């Protein structure tokens, strides 16, 4: 063996640009399976998806329902609340993605990916795929609890599925925002703190918990353009009837805009860190 061969550096992993679509999909599938196995080994990580929907629906229905709809009319408020909680649930699950990405860097998991001939974006997309699955579980539990408490749908099962799908699409777009935060901030605690600063005004300054007509004028203006209001109203109209086109298109427009802006930034940040 020649000295030139001995001294030659090891071949670098294949560049991301040379990886085809089929290989990318295979990588995403393998990484998604890895993430699901992590959940299987740590079932406590599913508490937010399993327990929180039950707590939210019981808390808001029976603590605020009487005040909002009048004592004895909690079921009316339940029908208003559940579509809004579907929107809120997506944001809570999305927040966990950012802390998870940040924690993976702290544990050195990403160092292993650095040496593999895989697309950097496939690591992030695989996380989103698994988190969308967790979001679907949380939404299913929320709806099951809602029906058990008296939730009624005045449209069709297809409209209900459309409301769930819309929540999944918007939730997936928000995950890119929190992934970017997870890649930009130093600790999971910092990611969680920043996420709460974003979440609180969006959640409570929306039509999730109460109609916006009785809010102060300046706040009503904010809620009109709040994407969570559009999502909550779209889900509400899909499940209970009403004009749905504007709210649906506004929600989809927000989802596309958020993804187009934050996904490339997140992938670029991930490449620079790995």
In words, what does this structure look like?
It comes from Streptomyces eurocidicus. Keywords: Antibiotic resistance, Cell membrane, Membrane, Transmembrane, Transmembrane helix, Transport. Residues 44-273 form the ABC transmembrane type-2 domain. It holds the Pfam family ABC2_membrane. The chain crosses the membrane at residues 46-65, 77-101, 122-148, 160-183, 190-210, 248-267. By secondary structure, the chain is mainly α. The chain has one domain (43-273). Helix content is 78%, strand content 0%. It has twelve helices and no strands. It has helices at 3-7, 21-41, 47-50, 52-69, 74-107, 109-114, 120-149, 157-184, 188-204, 217-225, 227-240, 245-273. α4 (52-69) runs antiparallel to α5 and α11 crosses α12 (245-273). The longest helix has 34 residues, at 74-107. Residues 1-17 have low confidence and may be disordered.
Q: Give the overall shape, derived from the CA principal axes.
A: elongated
Write down the overall mean pLDDT: 83
Would you list the SSEs in sequence order as H and E?
A: HHHHHHHHHHHH
Query: Low-confidence spans: pLDDT under 50, at least 5 residues?
Result: 1-17
Helix content: over 70%
- Assembly annotation: single chain
The biggest beta sheet is recorded as:
none
Whole-Å distance between the termini? Answer: 33 Å
State the total count of DSSP E strands: 0
* Broad structural category: mainly alpha
* Cα-atom radius of gyration: 21 Å
Question: Beta-strand percentage?
Answer: under 5%
Counting structural domains, the number is 1
Number of helices: 12
């Amino acid at each position: 063996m020649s000295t030139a061969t001995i001294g030659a550096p090891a071949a670098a992993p294949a560049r991301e640009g040379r990886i085809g679509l089929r290989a990318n999909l295979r990588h995403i599938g393998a990484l998604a399976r890895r993430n699901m196995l992590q959940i299987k080994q740590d079932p406590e990580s599913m508490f937010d998806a399993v327990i929180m929907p039950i707590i939210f629906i019981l808390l808001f229905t029976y603590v605020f329902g009487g005040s909002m709809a009048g004592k004895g009319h909690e079921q009316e408020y339940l029908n208003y609340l559940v579509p809004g909680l579907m929107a809120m649930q997506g944001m809570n699950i999305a927040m966990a993605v950012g802390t998870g990405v940040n924690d993976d860097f702290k544990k050195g998991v990403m160092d292993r990916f650095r040496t593999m001939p895989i697309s950097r974006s496939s690591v992030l997309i695989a996380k989103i795929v698994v988190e969308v699955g967790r979001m679907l579980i949380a939404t299913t539990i929320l709806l099951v609890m809602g029906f058990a408490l008296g939730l009624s749908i005045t449209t069709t099962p297809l409209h209900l599925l459309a409301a769930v799908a819309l929540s999944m699409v918007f939730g997936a777009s928000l995950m890119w925002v929190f992934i970017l935060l997870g890649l930009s901030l130093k600790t999971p605690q910092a990611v969680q703190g920043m996420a709460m600063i974003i979440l609180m005004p969006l959640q409570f300054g929306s039509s999730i918990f109460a109609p916006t007509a009785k809010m102060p004028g300046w706040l009503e203006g904010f809620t009109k353009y709040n994407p969570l209001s559009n999502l909550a109203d779209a889900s509400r109209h899909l499940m209970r009837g009403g004009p749905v086109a504007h709210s649906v298109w506004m929600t989809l427009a927000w989802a596309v805009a958020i993804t187009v802006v934050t996904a490339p930034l997140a992938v670029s940040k991930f490449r620079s860190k790995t």
